[in-house]
Amino acid sequence: MLEVKKLTVHYGIIQATKEVSFQVKEGEIVSLIGANGAGKSTILKAISGLHRATSGEILYQGKPIQNESTKKIVQLGISQVPEGRHVFGGMTVLENLEMGAFLRKDKTEIQKDLKMVFDRFPILEERKKQDTATLSGGEQQMVALGRALMSRPKLLLLDEPSMGLAPIFIKEIFAIIKMINAQGTTVLLIEQNAKVALEIAQQGYVLETGRVVQSGTGKELLASDDVQKAYLGG
Amino acid sequence: MENFIQQLINGLSLGSIYALIALGYTMVYGIIKLINFAHGEIYMVGAFIGYATIHTFQLGLIPSLIISMGFCALLGALIERVAYKPLRKATRVAALITAIGVSFLLQNVMIYIVGPQVRAFPQVIENKVYSVGNIQINQTQITIFLTTIILMVALQFIVKQTKMGKAMRAVSTDADAARLMGINVDNVISFTFILGSSLAGAAGVLVGMYYNSIDPLMGVAPGLKAFIAAVLGGIGIIPGALVGGFAIGIIETLISGYGSSLIKDAVVYLILIIILIVKPTGLLGKNKKEKV
After folding, report:
1. How far is A59 from chain B (nearest CA, A)?
2. Of A118, A166, A179, A197, which is most buried by a Cβ count within 10 Å?
3. Residue B153 lies in a domain
């Protein structure tokens, strides 16, 4: 479904990723793990078209998308939950979710999806008239996830969904990610929290200073000595 | 007491004009963090369009307001595309200096076209005076106040209820997240200039009615005062522009009424200095704490 080939991205003169290649098959959860500064978020920004690649290719359903606008990429079915949630503070929970469906015109279907999001996150229905800025971190993460789902993505990009959350919320969010995937959405997940990320992933890649240094199934990576040492404190 | 109420009424109509202009400053700032110093000139152009429609084409107040708003909306969108859009990734100071440049350009183009002299603004409505006791209120003041209220209700509806208005608020809180929703940020920016400039166009016609005179440099002082009003209320915050606009208008008329009209401008600028020292985020502004 998604194939990233030799992707190199610069921030000014700093090279953030160096010829990174990986692929995401339809129906999978794929995790990219790595420490802060390994270039993980940069990869997602390049896929969403927020930041342009210096070289390399991003193929989505066989077609290159690295020069498309973010709007076009969202229309093609790629939705991103950015790092740090980036909900729209000052707007209500409901308005945030509506923004997720910004490009859609099918009003009755939007209402259905809204109901689906509220079924999945009942707390959001209770707070739908509330200013999103007043919600807790975990609830904001739910808003960000729900908002991304409102575009009916085929491929969901998640940037550090566990960041800043209490362990109980991390468990809940990851259970939900698994469920979203089970219902047919492909997931590309980026995490510093390697353990939770690899546990739910079919396929994983380890990034270090902008390069892929290791790859394998989620289980293989969890068992690998290098990953144990570097990320799991084992 | 009567004098106080009289000045309050005068202040409300002047303040509503400041509020209309301040809204344009604050919306544009909210979206692209630019103090659009050419905004006062858009309002000046609006006054001249009003002059042309009323004096030359003999149209009434409402068609004149609509034409002036439409023309200024186009002018504002054009300025954004030509002057500010190419600088989207440049430093903020570059855009700010460009805005000052556009301001001078508009002033001088207008001097070239219509000449530098002050013109009398034609009378467009019959100026009846109503008196309650010793307090007087005239038709012009009522018209200015009502027009402003109608435009503000319309603006509130657009910003709160329409898709484009919601997109505007989304872009102003987080442009990158808005992009991830598929929102075309450039279109939202154009839309913001269109809204703000059309309000300035209306303000131009209203100010012509209020002062009865217009000239190509008339945008400078009210433009600055409206900017101060936006800062006083909290720049980037729409209700702040209303509060600030009315506050500045009322303060100005009270000072002219009780003290001396010679120092009214000085007091307004003094307010700017005080607000920047004491509460730079403005009356309605919150001190933002970054949540990580």
Report:
1. 19
2. A197
3. yes
Query: How many beta-carbon contacts under 8 Å exist across A and B?
Result: 64
- pLDDT at residue B286 is higher than 60: yes
| Structure confidence at residue B125 (pLDDT) | 87
| Partner residues linked to A4 by β-bridges | A22, A58
Chain B partners within 8 Å of A102 (Cβ): 163, 167, 181-183
Within-domain flag for B225: no
Of B167, B170, B182, the CB nearest to A74: B182
Candidates A81, A102, A152, A162: best to mutate against B (most CBs of B within 10 A) is A102
**Is residue B285 scored above 70 in pLDDT?**
yes
Q: What is the pTM of this model?
A: 0.90
Q: Which residues of chain A lie closer than 8 angstroms to B291, CB-CB?
A: 137
Domain ranges of chain A: 2-86+154-231
Cross-chain Cβ contact B173/A100 below 8 Å: no
Q: Average pLDDT of chain B?
A: 92
CA distance linking residue B43 with residue B200, whole number of Å: 5
- Using CB atoms, pick whichever of B173, B179, B292 lies closest to residue A70: B179
**Per the CB < 8 Å rule, is B184 touching A151?**
no
Residue A62: burial class (beta carbons within 10 Å; 0-12, 13-18, 19+): exposed
Q: How many separate domains does chain B show?
A: 1
Residue A98 and residue B166: Cβ atoms within 8 Å?
A: yes
Closest approach of A231 to chain B, Cα-based (Å): 22
Q: Please indicate, yes or no, if residue B169 is contained in any of the structural domains.
A: yes
Pick out chain A residues at pLDDT < 50.
none
**Is residue B290 scored above 60 in pLDDT?**
no
Our CA-based measurement puts residue B74 at a distance from the nearest CA of chain A, in whole angstroms, of 25
CATH code linked to domain A2-86+154-231: 3.40.50.300
Q: Measure the CA–CA gap between A43 and A24, rounded to whole angstroms.
A: 13
The answer to whether the beta carbons of residues B171 and B188 sit under 8 Å apart is yes
Helix ranges (H only) for chain B are 2-32, 39-51, 61-79, 92-114, 139-161, 163-173, 175-180, 185-211, 220-233, 238-258, 264-278
| Residue A84 pLDDT | 87
Quote the domain boundaries for residue B109.
13-216
Chain A positions touching B173 (Cβ under 8 A) are: 88-91
Task: Give the pLDDT of residue B288.
Answer: 57
ipTM, two decimals, is: 0.90
In tens, the pLDDT along B214-243 reads 999 999 999 999 999 999 999 988 899 999
Give the separation between CA B24 and CA B27, rounded to whole angstroms.
5
